[in-house]
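Figure 3 (text version): C-alpha cells given as input.
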C-alpha cells in the first residue's frame, strides 16, 4: 500500500465532498512533516483557497476532519498556519513493518527491462589513480548500484586513455632514465612507477627550458615575440608550450615517438604495450582495494578514429561544415560556439572520438541510457557531443547524460599531476585505514579479536570513512577531503553510520531466542522516535528510485546518516531489551532489525560494507 497515494486520494475526495470541486493528484502538494511538529505528512492547502473561498487555516480544518473520518489509515490531524499535518495510524505502520520484515527484496525495484551504461574512472596510462579519480570512481560505482536497485540492467565501463603525447612523455622518460627498471625488479607498483617517470619528464623538461632561457636563441625569441614592456620572466612563463613544440629536444623526441606509434613502429609499440600493461595491472589493484570492477573496457587506441563515419554522415546531411580539412558544427544558438570535430591538419579531436565511441557502445549493448561520469570542466565538451548526436537523429541521443562533478581538494589545497603534488589513491586509502587503526587503538574495543579480524574491521571502517565522506557531498559541489574528519565516530561519517548498525547487531545477538516477535503486533502506542524510524524506513524504496533518476548518490548517503542519527537517539531515549512490556520489546526488536537491514542495503549502494563489530 502506498500511503502517499492514499493521502492524495483522501484529499481529492475531501475537496470534492466539502467544496464540490474536482482536482487531481498533481494539485495535491505534500511533504514529510517537519520534526518540530506533530504528524507524519503535511498537505499544503494554499492552492485550494480559490476553490473554497476561505482562509488556509479553515480549509485545513475542513479537509482534516473529512480525511480522519473517511480514510482509515489516518488517525489524527492538526493545523499549523494553514498547513494540514496528518498522523498515520498504528495499524498501518504495524502492517507495513510486518510486511517489510518478510520481504527479502525491500527497497529493490523489479526489472524495468531497460539497460543503462555507466562510464567512470577512465584514467590515463601515464599516471596512477589519484584523489580526483576516487571521487569519479565512487560516484560511478554508486550510480551503477543505485540504478541496478531501481530496476535497470547496468553495464559498467571505462575508456582508458592510453595514447597521445602525455603517454609518450612517460615512455620517453622511462627509456632515457629508467635503466631497465620494471615493477618487478624495483618493487614499485606499475602505475606509480610509470607516473614517476611522467613527473621526471616534467622535471627534466623544466631544467632544459631553464637552461635554454640563458641562450642567445632564447634572447632572440624574447626580443622578437615579447609584448611591449613585457619582462623576461612573464614572457618565458607564457612561452613554455611554444618552446616544447619549436625548440625543446625532449619535446622533439616525444613528438617523434608519437609519430612512430601512429605509424606502428614495432619497437615503439612493444614499449607502449609493456608500459600500458604495468599501469593497467596497477589500476586493477587499486580497484580491488575499493571493491570496484567493470563489465567492459574500451581503449582510446582502438576508438580515436571511430568518429570518421559519423562525421561523413553529418557532412552529407549538412549538419557539419567542412573548410579545407577542418570540420565543425555551428552551435552558436546553443551558446557553444563552433565545435571542431576534425582539426585543420585532418586529425581527430576528442569530440570525434566520443561520437564514434557512443555509436560503438550503442552497437555493442543497445542501452537506453549512457551516463558519463566526468569532471565539470568537460561540461561544454559533452554538451557539444550530445547536441551533434541529437541533430544526427541517433536513436540513443536523448539518453545521454553527463554526470558532472566538482573538483576535490585537500586541506592543503589543489593537486597538480605534472608537479608530482597529486595524492596517490593508494596512499589515500592507506592513510584513512591508518586513521581508522589509531581510532580503534584509542577506543580499545577490538582487543579480544584475532589480529586478522581486527585488520579486516579496521580496513572496513577506513574505506567506509573514505567513501562516505566523498559521496555525501552532492556531485555538482566542489569539496575538500579531510582524512582525519572522515573517521570521526560522532560526525556525519561512514563510521558513525556503521556504529548504528553494529549497535543493532549487538542488541539482536543479546535478544536471540529471548523474545516472541509476534507480540509486536499488539504494540500500538508508538513513541515519536518509533514513528520517525518507521517513516524513514517507508521512504527508502522511493528514495532509491529518485536517487537513480537524479544520478545522486549523496541523497542515499544523507539518508543513511539521518536514519542512523534517529536510531542513536532512539537507543539513548528508550530501552529495547528492558522495554516496559513484552509487546514493546518485541516491536522495538523488529524495528531495530529492519533499521539494520535498510542501513546495510543503503550503504551497500555506496559500496560500503557493514561490520558486525567495531
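Below: residues designed for each position.
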Amino acid at each position: 500500500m502506498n500511503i502517499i497515494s492514499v493521502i492524495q486520494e483522501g484529499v481529492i475526495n475531501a475537496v470534492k465532498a466539502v467544496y464540490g470541486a474536482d482536482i487531481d493528484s498533481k494539485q495535491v502538494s505534500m511533504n514529510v512533516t517537519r520534526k518540530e511538529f506533530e504528524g507524519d505528512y503535511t498537505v499544503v492547502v494554499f492552492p485550494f483557497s480559490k476553490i473554497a473561498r476561505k482562509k488556509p487555516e479553515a480549509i485545513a480544518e475542513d479537509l482534516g476532519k473529512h480525511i480522519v473520518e473517511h480514510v482509515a489509515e489516518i488517525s489524527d490531524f492538526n493545523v499549523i498556519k494553514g498547513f494540514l499535518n496528518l498522523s498515520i495510524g498504528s495499524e498501518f505502520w504495524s502492517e507495513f513493518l510486518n510486511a517489510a520484515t518478510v520481504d527479502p527484496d525491500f527497497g529493490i525495484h523489479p526489472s524495468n527491462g531497460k539497460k543503462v551504461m555507466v562510464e567512470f574512472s577512465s584514467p590515463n596510462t601515464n599516471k596512477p589513480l589519484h584523489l580526483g579519480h576516487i571521487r569519479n570512481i565512487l560516484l560511478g560505482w554508486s550510480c551503477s548500484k543505485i540504478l541496478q536497485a531501481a530496476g535497470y540492467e547496468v553495464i559498467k565501463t571505462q575508456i582508458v586513455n592510453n595514447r597521445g603525447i602525455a603517454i609518450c612523455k612517460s615512455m620517453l622518460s622511462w627509456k632515457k632514465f629508467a635503466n631497465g627498471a620494471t615493477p618487478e625488479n624495483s618493487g614499485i607498483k606499475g602505475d606509480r612507477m610509470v607516473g614517476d617517470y611522467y613527473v621526471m619528464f616534467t622535471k627534466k623538461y623544466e631544467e632544459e627550458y631553464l637552461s635554454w632561457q640563458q641562450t642567445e636563441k632564447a634572447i632572440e625569441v624574447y626580443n622578437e615575440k615579447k609584448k611591449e614592456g613585457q619582462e623576461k620572466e612573464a614572457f618565458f612563463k607564457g612561452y613554455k608550450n611554444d618552446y616544447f613544440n619549436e625548440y625543446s629536444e625532449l619535446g622533439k623526441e616525444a613528438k617523434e615517438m608519437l609519430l612512430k606509434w601512429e605509424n606502428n613502429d614495432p619497437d615503439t609499440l612493444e614499449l607502449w604495450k609493456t608500459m600500458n600493461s604495468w599501469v593497467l595491472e596497477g589500476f586493477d589493484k587499486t580497484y580491488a582495494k575499493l571493491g570496484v570492477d567493470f563489465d567492459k573496457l574500451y581503449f582510446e587506441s582502438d576508438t580515436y578514429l571511430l568518429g570518421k563515419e559519423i562525421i561523413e554522415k553529418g557532412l552529407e546531411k549538412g549538419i557539419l561544415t567542412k573548410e579545407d580539412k577542418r570540420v565543425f558544427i555551428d552551435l552558436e544558438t546553443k551558446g557553444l560556439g563552433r565545435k571542431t570535430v576534425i582539426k585543420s591538419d585532418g586529425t581527430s579531436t576528442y569530440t570525434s572520438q566520443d561520437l564514434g565511441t557512443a555509436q560503438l557502445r550503442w552497437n555493442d549493448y543497445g542501452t537506453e541510457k549512457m551516463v558519463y561520469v566526468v569532471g565539470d570542466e568537460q561540461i561544454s565538451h559533452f554538451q557539444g557531443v550530445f547536441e551533434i548526436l541529437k541533430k544526427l537523429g541517433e536513436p540513443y541521443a536523448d539518453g545521454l547524460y553527463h554526470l558532472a562533478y566538482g573538483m576535490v581538494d585537500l586541506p592543503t589545497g589543489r593537486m597538480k599531476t605534472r608537479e608530482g603534488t597529486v595524492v596517490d589513491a593508494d596512499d589515500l586509502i592507506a592513510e584513512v585505514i591508518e586513521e581508522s587503526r589509531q581510532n580503534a587503538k584509542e577506543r580499545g574495543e577490538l582487543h579480544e579479536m584475532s589480529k586478522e579480524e581486527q585488520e579486516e574491521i579496521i580496513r572496513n571502517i577506513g574505506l567506509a570513512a573514505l567513501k562516505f565522506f566523498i559521496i555525501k557531498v552532492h556531485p555538482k559541489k566542489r569539496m575538500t577531503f579531510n582524512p582525519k574528519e572522515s573517521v570521526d565516530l560522532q560526525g556525519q561519517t561512514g563510521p558513525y553510520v556503521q556504529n548504528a548498525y553494529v549497535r543493532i547487531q549487538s542488541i539482536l545477538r543479546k535478544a536471540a531466542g529471548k523474545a516472541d516477535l509476534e507480540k509486536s503486533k499488539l504494540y500500538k502506542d508508538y513513541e515519536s522516535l518509533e514513528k520517525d524510524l518507521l517513516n524513514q524506513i517507508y521512504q527508502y524504496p522511493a528514495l532509491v528510485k529518485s536517487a537513480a533518476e537524479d544520478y545522486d548518490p549523496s541523497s542515499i548517503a544523507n539518508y543513511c546518516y539521518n536514519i542512523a542519527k534517529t536510531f542513536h537517539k532512539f537507543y539513548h531515549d528508550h530501552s529495547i531489551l528492558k522495554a516496559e512490556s513484552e509487546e514493546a520489546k518485541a516491536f522495538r526488536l523488529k524495528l531495530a532489525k529492519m533499521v539494520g537491514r535498510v542501513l546495510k542495503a543503503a550503504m551497500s549502494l555506496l559500496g560500503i560494507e557493514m561490520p558486525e563489530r567495531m
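The CA atoms of residues 134 and 425 lie 7 Å apart.
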